[in-house]
Amino acid sequence: MRTVYLCIGCAATYLPPESMTYPSHPDVTASPAHCGNPTCAAATREAVAMSGLTEEKLGELARRAAGLEGDARLPRVNRRRARGSRAAAAPSGGRSKLR
Ligand SMILES: [Zn+2]
Fold first, then answer.
1. What tens digit of pLDDT does each residue of 37-93 get?
2. Alpha-carbon torsion 42, 35, 38, 26, what sign?
3. Total Cβ atoms within 10 A of residue 78
4. Which is more confidently placed, 70 or 31?
5. Ligand 1 centroid from CA 60, angstroms
6. CB contact burial 10-30 (16+ within 10 A = b; e otherwise)
7. CB proximity list for 26: less than 8 A, separation 6 or greater
8. Rounded distance, CA 31 to CA 81, Å?
9. C-alpha 4 to ligand 1 mean position (Å)
10. How many whole angstroms from 96 Cα to the centroid of ligand 1?
11. What is the distance in A from the centroid of ligand 1 to the CA of 80?
């Protein structure tokens, strides 16, 4: 499966060639963290400088956060309990009458 990339500058998704190079533009390589917009390239350079992480790592974290790669960290769904049903069992560390 191809990797869909997420620009950390403008949040656009993009699909560069797998080689990350363009035959028509030999001097251009696709970045794993930003799209072709120069503003996004500048924002990414700044993010790399501030975080100390590589472009590859930043791109990976962005893809993961957006759910494009690995397990997305979804917020816990606050499901409403059906009327009349019991509350969820207390975690094992919860209080009991025996202690
Ligand atoms: Zn962008």
1. 999 999 999 999 999 999 999 999 999 999 888 765 566 666 666 677 777 766 666
2. positive
3. 5
4. 31
5. 15
6. eeeeeebeeeeeeeeeeeeeb
7. none
8. 46
9. 13
10. 54
11. 39
CA of 30 to the centre of ligand 1 (A): 12
Task: Tell how far the Cα of 90 is from the centroid of ligand 1, in angstroms.
Answer: 46
Residue 28, domain member (yes or no): yes
Looking at residue 96, its pLDDT comes to: 66
Compute the distance from residue 57 Cα to the ligand 1 centre, in Å: 16
Total number of domains constituting the chain = 1
Residue 45 token pair:
């350079």
| Full residue range of the structural domain in which residue 23 is found | 5-65
- Rounded to the nearest angstrom, the distance between the alpha carbon of 58 and the centre of ligand 1 is 13
The answer to whether residue 55 sits within a structural domain is yes
Q: Model pTM?
A: 0.67
81 is a domain residue: no
Distance 41 CA to ligand 1 centre (A): 7
Domain assignment of residue 91, yes or no = no
